[in-house]
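Fig. S4 source data, part A: sequence.
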Amino acid sequence: MRLGHGERFREMNGPLLRSARTAILACMVAVVALAEPPVGPSALPATTGWRGDGTGIYPVFDVPTEWGDAKNLKWRVRVGHAYSTPVVAGDSVLVTAEPSNIVCLGLADGVVRWKASVKAADAPAEFKDKALASEEAASSCGYAAPTPVCDGHDAFFLFGSGLVACFSIDGHRKWEQYLEPIGQTYGHSSSPLLIGRTLLVNVSHLTALDADTGHVLWECAEAEHTYGTPVIMNLGGTVVVVTPVGKIVRVSDGRVLARDVASDLGGSEFGISPVASGDMVYLGDRTITALKLSLDGDAVRAQTVWAAHPDASAFASPVVWDGMFFFVGKGAECLVLDAKTGAKLLEQELKIGPAGVEDSDLNSANLYPSLVIAAGKLLVTNDKGQTFIYEASKELKEIARNRLKDGSGATPVVTATSILLRGGNYLCAIGK
């Protein structure tokens, strides 16, 4: 850990998947406000970012279970293409688009309220040359893969070029920072996390910024770059993040409190993000490891509760709900496990994406979007515009299947009145 300023994925089949993998792993990332909080008591402020509060759990689902391009579509607005997920803040929706654009819309009507872009020319003078060079670097997933994070007053945006910026919810630019990214096969996808007034980003390693100024608070070189995003946990009043490769870092000062808490998780350049519930954290996809964490002075004890070895790896981050762990592999292999014991409750192949599809156009579909549960309904989505809705239970009864003309790798966002889905260059709101 250094104070002051600032392996590769498994080979995939086919050039299309190789170029797209991280693009959507951008959509597998985590942050901190809803049903089953991963962080214990109300020690953390409510923030909204990737998968809502980072769990992928939403308390309500007062929206239609069936939709299409001409059915239950409240609005559809061209915002530009990206793999990032939209973020809801009050009555506003914030979304990024390539290469470094921001759009703010009204949640109810989709009316554009303001637009902005984050450019290297606006970076601090001492970093401007490097920032300009980063803007020219090639990236298979583009630059607008990370999902923003917002606390209702300020919104924070990270782009794969290393540019970080803060805007007020009404569009006033507060600051811009630059952190030099490292070259990655698939680009950058890890999303920012906001804990109080500390903003955590990872473009080469985990770095903490002052949310009010953008100044670097600390850097933790040991918490190396990963495609996935760490998950936030509160251990006896100490707030930590758990990285996709099993490093546990204290948020207050960047100190590593535990290392390599699980093995054989799926590679050193992780895409799949960990998920947490209470004092349990779930890591990995090739080997899924459930750990119970506890604080012991300046260290964290990680007790392995169970480990599972699915015959599949995943793009989509899993979800934990009602005592169950839901996992969907990249070939539509679905596992429902007991979250406490790891006992297998269900194993089946879903009829979404490349597994058993009737539509030949879907043969190349990828299950990139992460899993979402809203009021007991599991949403499974692919990049061809399909969304299947299941009963979130060990029976996994199918409720509905839907499709939009344009697909996306972005994960759905559920609000009290709508589902937000990206499709191509558009953002769509599904509702009554």
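Fig. S4 source data, part B ends here. Confidence is low (pLDDT under 50) at residues 1-45.
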